[in-house]
Specification:
This protein is mainly α. 81% of the residues lie in helices and 0% in strands.
Length: 181
């Protein structure tokens, strides 16, 4: 199927289009702004799940979706991490897992592009899906912790981000081993 106007593709596009609203929540620098950012981020996470579900359930996978969906996920996570660090919501030490996650995403995007350009299909592993879910949950928890002003909850979210960085490295190595070595 090559149509762009499928439900999964519309959900993916909406995730990208919601990013300025997510950013607005941070720039408001109020509790309501953070609630807005959290609500938009959670909505984006839900659309990520739903676009995959609809694509598989209704056989609406498209080349456009195979390219844009993982890219939209990477953009969402990257922007969220950058905003959390840039607005001093996460500790400076969280730059380490953030850098690991962002580097992995750039490398894997290059491998995905090369694989697709060669005419091969780049299948996402279950570990990579867990990585994305853990990153999204960790980010949601950190934003929520900021809303409720809980240092303890924030530490839990940041610890999950570190865990997701470990999973990112492991899944990245699996992809590299499959495609490069």
């Amino acid at each position: 199927m090559n149509r762009i106007s499928t439900v999964p593709n519309i959900l993916t596009i909406s995730r990208v289009l919601l990013l300025p609203v997510f950013a607005l929540g941070f720039f408001m620098e109020t509790k309501n702004g953070m609630i807005l950012a959290l609500a938009v981020f959670v909505l984006c996470c839900i659309t990520d799940y739903l676009d995959g579900y609809y694509a598989r359930a209704y056989k609406q996978t498209t080349k456009f979706g195979r390219i844009l969906d993982p890219l939209a996920d990477k953009i969402l996570v990257a922007i969220a991490i950058l905003f959390l660090i840039g607005f001093n919501i996460m500790s400076r030490l969280s730059i380490i897992p953030a850098a690991v996650i962002l580097c992995r995403e750039v490398i894997i995007s290059g491998i995905r592009d090369a694989t697709e350009a060669a005419g091969d299909c780049f299948k996402t592993t279950i570990l990579a899906k867990w990585k994305t879910a853990m990153q999204m949950l960790a980010i949601s928890i950190v934003i929520f912790a900021n809303v409720i002003e809980s240092e303890t909850v924030s530490v839990v979210g940041e610890a999950m981000l570190w865990g997701s960085a470990v999973i990112a490295v492991c899944s990245g190595l699996i992809y590299c081993r499959r495609r490069v070595f």
